[in-house]
Amino acid sequence: MKTIHKKSNKKVQTSAAAMLNLLILFSASEKTVAQNNIGIVGVDHVGINVPDLNKAVTFFNDVLGFTPVTKIGPIPLDAPWKELNHINPKTGAVTIIMINAGNGASIEVFEYADNKGSLSHPNADDIGASHIAFYVNNINIAVKYLKSKGVKILGEPFTMPSGDTAGESWVYFETPWGSKMELVSYPNGKGYEKNNPVKILWSPKDPAKKVADKLNSNLISESEIRSLVESHLAIWNEKDLKKRKNLIEKVYADNIEMVDSHFIANGHKEINEFIDDLQKKSLNSKFSIIKEIDVNHNTARLYWKHSSSEKTDSVTGMDLFVLENGKIVKLYVFLDIED
What we know:
Layout: H1 2-38, E1 45-49, H2 53-63, E2 67-75, H3 79-84, E3 94-100, E4 106-112, E5 132-135, H4 139-148, E6 152-159, E7 169-174, E8 180-185, H5 205-217, H6 222-237, H7 241-251, E9 252-259, E10 264-266, H8 267-281, E11 285-289, E12 294-296, E13 299-308, E14 314-324, E15 327-338
Parallel strand pairs: 1-4, 5-8, 9-15
Antiparallel strand pairs: 2-3, 3-4, 6-7, 7-8, 9-10, 11-13, 12-13, 13-14, 14-15
Helix pairs in contact: 6-7
Keywords: Metal-binding
Protein name: Glyoxalase
GO molecular function: metal ion binding; methylmalonyl-CoA epimerase activity
């Protein structure tokens, strides 16, 4: 009887294992069919709301080294849209900037004008609370860097000692507007990978070197970038149409896009027409640099003043540049009025 019982147990165990494998296979098949039917390829972007778009872009660009790529708005929102999306009826237009965050999903940053929604961040255990995690090669170096920039670190890096995420180090930090974000690192992989799983979690660390190599191959020196930015300012001060056209061709890419809070200009012709119109409206005004030009990889930032000797008031602002193949391909204009 004992022998029969042992054989019976073995059969039951074998059947159970086979059933489990079938269930896993069936479940995976269902998920594959569902994914194919809906057509999902992967995560495109993560959206967050911020109280001040300019300050958020400055933080992402200056501190984290990310690059804003597209900007739309301000877009007025009608009453049905607000009701459908649970937006306060009195909240104003929305402006959106999409930011390239390296090798991974982009970050879509929203600012609502005259925002009447909640101005408090959700607590960590509230429904809807979320965070964005950024992979770094060395978490201790990254933490030291963020601290040098005045970023609030929430605790100290912790390395998982066991389990599926063994070998992963992580720590949370706060943005200047109070959103919680995370640094994470697992240079030697995670514990679960040692079990040869059927599915591996996507990681930005594996192809990151290829992306970095490609980026570095397109980089030009800081002095060359500063020279291009200075030439950009010369373009906006140049009144001779022929000279301006020659400068534009040297400095701006053919497909350059200039994004202002009120309009978008594409290509040499539209930007040249805008400059010409601006000069006609302010004959004696001139652009000048009011701070040293900042350079970060293939991006640059210029603080400027537009004023004339005849007026006491002036317009100040900041231009943010993205450069590719030795020319400016993106120009973001942020204005501020000074009395």
